[in-house]
Design brief:
single chain, alpha/beta, Spore Coat Polysaccharide Biosynthesis Protein SpsA, Chain A, 2 domains
């Protein structure tokens, strides 16, 4: 028998591996940014020449093929990685997952739309390595920075949002709304389990979640116009910003989603009682019939309001609205039966229509919140 030759594999030493390990990870959240991928990588390579770096593109399953564009570059450049998320969406959560996929001691966040000045990255890294700072922010609002071609309306909105954000920040900073920054890994690790991961303002979330205010340095840059694709700024982005602020203000007391659901539920109480009163006094309905109609009307109103506001990040659209409404009715049917049953029993005993109505509402509301969060607006 002839022995097969041994297969020898050259195993790199620990020191050799460490030479190639990146000291900087650039996290790039993407959604429909296919045409910007290659230009951004080229700019990063030019700006970070001589630095051991990598870029992790976190793509929210873009329909325009962004993830495949990243992979095409990654097949030629091992410094590029693609993390494609399916069924999840949001810039903040994308950044969090990107940082978690990295082992580098320094991490930067930059948008894929080429509006941030990547030439600032080496100065950020130098500041973190040589100065007593934890977080370096690319700022539009310090001397030398600017917002580029923004019109007066957008400048006013940005200035107002900046003032609002200072309510929850724990450090003095001119541009807490910036999406361009670099940090020591320890800053992220300290804040990780307190992050809200809501919306598009990861820097604001980060600063409001650290156990101690981070030491911050701001470097000026001029905000560039978008080269390709479309702006992501819309009503949903604004609402998620408001939700983030609310979460940082009261989230340690009560979950913001529950608080908003309860607020809409309180409005539903007004609708319910108005319909019940009209049914009894204007249409001479039996109490059980009036209570049933009031419950259905209030439930329908609550569904649409919660779909727009409470579950804006999971908002149902198109035919899914009808399916969601039907599921909302079905899974809350037991609560509705209990609502009507308890209210009818109390009315028969006491003949106090408003007290009986409120008792039924409480029972139905508990069911509405518990089951809708799990079934009607469940994440994919």
């Amino acid at each position: 028998m002839v022995n097969a030759p041994e297969l020898t594999v050259a195993v790199p030493t620990f020191d050799e591996v460490m030479v190639n390990a990146p000291e900087l990870t650039v996290v790039v959240p993407t959604f429909n940014e296919r045409d910007n991928i290659l230009p951004l990588v080229q700019r990063l390579a030019a700006a970070l020449e001589g630095c051991a770096w990598e870029a992790i593109f976190v793509d929210d399953d873009s329909p325009d093929g962004t993830a495949e564009a990243v992979r095409a570059v990654a097949r030629r450049d091992p410094r590029i990685r693609c993390l494609q998320r399916v069924g999840r969406r949001g810039l903040s959560s994308a950044c969090i997952e990107g940082v978690l996929a990295s082992a580098a001691p320094f991490v930067a966040v930059i948008d894929a739309d080429l509006q941030h000045d990547e030439r600032l990255l080496p100065r950020m890294l130098t500041a973190l390595k040589t100065e007593p700072v934890d977080l370096v922010v690319g700022s539009r609002y310090v001397a030398g920075g600017g917002v580029g071609a923004w019109d007066a309306g957008r400048q006013r909105v940005s200035a107002f949002a900046t003032r609002l954000s200072r309510i929850v920040t724990r450090a003095e900073i001119a541009d807490p709304m910036s999406g361009f920054f670099m940090m020591r890994r320890g800053v992220f690790d300290d804040a990780l389990r307190r992050l809200s991961a809501q919306g598009f303002k990861i820097l604001l979330d980060l600063m409001a979640s650290t156990s101690q205010p981070p030491r911050i340095k701001e470097l000026p840059y001029e905000f560039r116009p978008r080269q390709h694709g479309e702006s992501k700024l819309d009503a949903l982005v604004v609402w998620e910003f408001v939700m983030l602020l609310a979460d940082k203000l009261i989230g340690h007391i009560v979950p913001v989603r529950f608080a908003l659901f309860a607020f809409i539920g309180a409005f539903g109480v007004v609708i319910h009682m108005a319909v019940l009163w009209a049914g009894l006094t204007q249409f001479s309905l039996e109490f059980t019939t009036a209570q049933t109609v009031a419950a259905i009307v209030a439930m329908t109103g609550n569904f649409f309001l919660n779909n727009v506001f409470t579950y804006a990040d999971r908002r149902l659209k198109g035919w899914r609205i009808l399916r969601g409404l039907v599921s909302f009715y079905l899974i809350c049917s037991l609560g509705a039966v209990a609502n009507v049953g308890i209210a009818s029993y109390l009315f028969a005993e006491r003949h106090i229509w408003w007290a009986a109505g409120i008792a039924g509402i409480i029972v139905g509301s508990v069911w509405n919140y518990a089951v809708s969060a799990v079934f009607t607006w469940k994440g994919r």
